[in-house]
Amino acid sequence: MGLPTPVLETDRLRLRPATDADTDELFALHSDAFVLRYWDSPPWTERERADRFVATCVRMADEGTGARPVVERRSDGAFLGWCGVTRWDPEHRSASVGYCFARTAWGQGFATEAAGALLRWAFEALDLNRVQAEADTRNAASARVLEKLGFRLEGTLREDCVVDGVVSDSWVYGLLRREWAPS
């Protein structure tokens, strides 16, 4: 069963399916070591990774396992990053949410706005009961985004990631349908 990636608009943003035209921006985003300093994998060094990322977005939509749209500014179409609902499990009515934004987009509320729009779509279209997210315990900015969206800290996964020899912990956040308060 397919799950077409939605096109969503907010006051400032447009979320739309990733295309091959996004590979330059995706590569720039995921090759920025500072952006990925809290990520669970090292920065990209090969451009082919951006092609595989877009192919994975298309495959998730075709298989019905999730939606990972890119996020652009409505005023000028500038690429800002991406936001995704993945690991959709219709039987358990659950999914995971994640996002990654370029440094130039930080501190302006774009991640909260984009993830909020995607969550609204996911709770309505997928009839979700629970959404989960994880954030590196050193990533206070991502934790703030999740908390603004209504997620609750549920626990810590100790030493769950080892990237380039660096061991890190992750916080696990959850958001239940009954706690969801769309703005």
Main features:
about 180 residues; alpha+beta; eight-stranded mixed beta sheet; globular
Low-confidence stretches: none
Q: If you compute it from the alpha carbons, what radius of gyration comes out, rounded to the nearest whole angstrom?
A: 16 Å
Q: Structural class, from helix and strand content?
A: alpha+beta
- What is the tally of helical segments? 4
The major β-sheet equals: 8 strands, mixed
Shape: globular
Q: How are the strands ordered across the major sheet?
A: 1-2-3-4-5-6-8-7
User: Order of SSEs, N→C?
Assistant: EEHHEEEHEHEE
Polypeptide structure, described:
- The protein is α+β, with helices and mostly antiparallel strands and 183 residues long.
- Helices cover 27% and strands 32% of the residues.
- The protein has four helices and eight strands; from the N terminus they run ββααβββαβαββ.
- Helix 1 packs across helix 2.
